[in-house]
């Protein structure tokens, strides 16, 4: 059996130590509204260990979104999976302005 390549392990470790931010957006369908409200009131909608919720907003139209941060994609998946039976969810990795500006500044001029 071959030993693991320490260079590859180091690269994986560096990648997973990066704090990624995510926009989690949802809509509460009328058919699951009461059940979703009951679960939210019971649990507070808190994310699992490994996910930090930076903020959450609820629209008056049954839509909402949260900004979260994690180094663990499985923890993000776990959080979304806890609500997938009641809410259609969209998870989008995102960048703050400074990081997005850095990327945009590196693009070739058109």
Shape: elongated
Along the chain, the helix and strand elements come as HEHEEHEH
Order of strands side by side in the largest beta sheet? 2-3-1-4
Structural class: alpha+beta
Tell me the span between the first and last alpha carbons.
52 Å
Instruction: Count every helix, treating DSSP H or I runs of 4 or more residues as helices.
Output: 4
Mean residue pLDDT: 89
Work out the helicity level.
Answer: 25-40%
Annotation, overall tally of beta strands: 4
Major beta sheet summary: 4 strands, antiparallel
What fraction of residues sit in β-strands?
25-35%
Radius of gyration: 18 Å
Task: Catalogue the unreliable spans.
Answer: none
What does this protein structure show overall?
It contains four helices and four strands. The protein is an alpha+beta fold and 110 residues long. It has a four-stranded antiparallel β-sheet with strand order 2-3-1-4. The model has no long low-confidence stretch (mean pLDDT 89).
């Amino acid at each position: 059996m071959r030993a693991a390549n320490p260079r590859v392990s180091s690269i994986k470790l560096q990648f997973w130590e990066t704090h990624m931010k995510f926009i989690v957006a949802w809509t509460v369908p009328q058919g699951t509204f009461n059940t979703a409200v009951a679960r939210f009131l019971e649990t507070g909608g808190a994310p699992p260990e490994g996910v930090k919720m930076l903020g959450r907003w609820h629209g008056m139209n049954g839509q909402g979104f949260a900004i979260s941060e994690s180094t663990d994609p499985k923890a993000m998946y776990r959080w979304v999976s806890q609500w997938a039976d009641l809410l259609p969810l969209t998870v989008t990795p995102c960048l703050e302005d400074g990081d997005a500006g850095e990327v945009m500044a590196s693009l070739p001029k058109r």
